[in-house]
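Example record

One chain of 269 residues, shown exactly as stored in the release files.
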Amino acid sequence: MYSVLISLVIGLAVGLGLGFSGALGYGWSTFFGVLASGVAQFVSGRMVQRRVKAAMDAVQAVLVEGQKKLQAKAARWQMRPPGSIQAAQAEMARDQKVFVKEALARTENLRQFIPWVPMMARQIATAQFQLHWMIKDFKKVDELMPKALFFDPTMTAIKIARMYMLEKPTEEIAKVYEKAVRRLRYNQNVLLAAAYSWILVQRKDADGAFKVLNRALEKSDNDTLKANREHLANNRVAHFSNTALGEQWYALLLEEPKIRQQRQRMQWR
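Predicted structure tokens for this chain:
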């Protein structure tokens, strides 16, 4: 870590300089050396922090601007529905891929801070993992997964979703799930519990899914989790659904949103 090394060098230089010059005794020389080291660490840390934030904001700005354009296009299509929903979805996916790739390119600017910021390499991997997931670049997702950080419940939900896609054993998915939910606060477990119970239902383990939802609702009052628990309790497995969670559910790529083709009225002139 460059910032730590620089602050130590400054601290040693000040302490030894004061000690050997005879200006101060051993105790005071040590004190001012430690103080100088701390000040140098604080100043360099603040400077690096500002630059890191600016680089991260640049990545976020690309994503925000790209999302605005997608939303504007979707709004236009609501006024004048496209001829083909499938073609419209493909166009939106292409547009998203363009700005996500631009954001990915911006993340490379963060690599200059790896020697200065603890865990910077893993933070970059985490951001890139999420961005590659958005455009369904699963090869890169799988490469980055061992390097990414999974402290956030959404990130962990993505991880277990990918494990399901890769047909990993349920026991492995359960370990990831249980480790994550232990540290979550009230209602932070909703997406994770929804995803894991869905996976169990897909694997014909409705009883296991019911138990997961039962435990999850000890730390949540989410209506979707409640409804799914009731469906499973009354043997209505076919009614199990996470669609009420909206975009956060579909972002896991486990299901595609159902879009109905709108009929356009004929206008006679």
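Notes: Residues 12 and 107 are 36 Å apart (CA to CA).
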